[in-house]
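so my prof wants the structure for this chain in the tokens format not the other one, which i didnt know existed until like an hour ago. anyway here's the sequence
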Amino acid sequence: MSTRIILADDHKIVRDGLAALLAKVPGLEVVAEAADGRTAVRLAREMLPDVVIMDISMPDLNGIEATRQIVAEVSGVKVIALSMHSGRRLVMEVFKAGASGYLFKDCAFEELASAIRSVVAGDTYLSPKIAGVMVKELATQSLTDTPVAFSVLTAREREVLQLLAEGKTTKKIASLLHLSTKTVETHRQQIMNKLNVQSVADLVKYAIREGLTSL
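here's what i got, hopefully its the right format
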């Protein structure tokens, strides 16, 4: 039986390249592609894949939040995160969200194929290159970092923050999340209070710094 895979990346050329390479590997089958995190969640619910290969920086819903939702809602699915970022906090949050693997986007295809085999077998895969970066960070940084978005904001507040940072209006956010505009406004105020920021511009800077959006 083939391992069913969903590719989630906002760059079509990346999805096309991965799909072409995966098609050459016996036992691997790409069943769907997504250009944003929200679509990836919907397709995972519909297609019930074995593996989702997930870009971390995507519009509408970033890869970390998409991973959290997919793992919570789709039984048995494994998520492998692909990213250009190697910061310890970000990697930790990806695994806290339920991912089973984490690789650099510039890794060799053979490493991705190996990671797929590992997670399907029930193991966790962390690129040796990323592990090395994390060890260096741990050696030079204090473990008592200042609170980050993933610890001070709720999952819903993080969704609202990303959409605000991407320039979505209150009305548009309400429509996307099936909320009232008043509820979105309340979330925005709570986010600003928790983060102690005074403007949407500051929210945008914060969202970019914390990896919630790549804008």
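also thought this was worth mentioning. The chain has a mean pLDDT of 88.
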